[in-house]
């Protein structure tokens, strides 16, 4: 009788550990997915706001940039104006700082 109780306890403990690890991983993935979606949504909203306010000024550059190679885009005068606009409207936000660093490395 004692051995059966011990085996049941060990088996229950192992099953509990397995279920705890699986649920922890599931929870971690769900939270990570939600945080990514939240961040992407905020980035989209910020980009749309910037585009809505600056599109008339940069529309010709954006349209012409689709036909240029990377080096031509880097040296284009529209890119300099776009960098200056981003710096002007930056307002110390992380997303625009990230956009600025992406533009500088592009």
Keywords:
single chain; 106 residues; mainly alpha; 4 helices; rod-shaped; Two-component hybrid sensor and regulator histidine kinase; transmembrane
Biggest pleated sheet: none
Q: What is the H-and-E element order?
A: HHHH
Work out the helicity level.
Answer: over 70%
The figure for the number of domains is 1
- What is the straight-line distance between the termini? 72 Å
Keywords: Kinase, Membrane, Transferase, Transmembrane, Transmembrane helix
Organism: Vecturithrix granuli
Transmembrane segments: 6-27
GO molecular function: kinase activity
Descriptive account of the structure:
The protein has 106 residues and is mainly alpha-helical. It has one domain (2-105). The chain contains 4 helices and no strands. The longest helix has 64 residues, at 2-65. The model has no long low-confidence stretch (mean pLDDT 82). GO terms for molecular function: kinase activity. This is Two-component hybrid sensor and regulator histidine kinase. It comes from Vecturithrix granuli.
Summarize the structure in short.
This is Two-component hybrid sensor and regulator histidine kinase. This protein has 106 residues and is mainly alpha-helical.
Write the layout of secondary structure elements.
Blueprint: H1 2-65, H2 70-75, H3 77-88, H4 94-105
């Amino acid at each position: 009788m004692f051995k059966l109780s011990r085996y049941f306890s060990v088996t229950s403990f192992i099953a509990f550990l397995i279920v705890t690890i699986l649920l922890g991983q599931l929870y971690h993935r769900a939270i990570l997915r939600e945080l990514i979606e939240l961040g992407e949504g905020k980035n989209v909203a910020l980009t749309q706001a910037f585009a809505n306010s600056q599109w008339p000024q940069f529309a010709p550059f954006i349209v012409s940039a689709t036909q240029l190679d990377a080096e031509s885009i880097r040296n284009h005068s529209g890119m300099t104006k776009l960098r200056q606009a981003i710096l002007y409207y930056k307002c110390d936000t992380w997303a625009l700082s990230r956009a600025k660093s992406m533009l500088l490395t592009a």
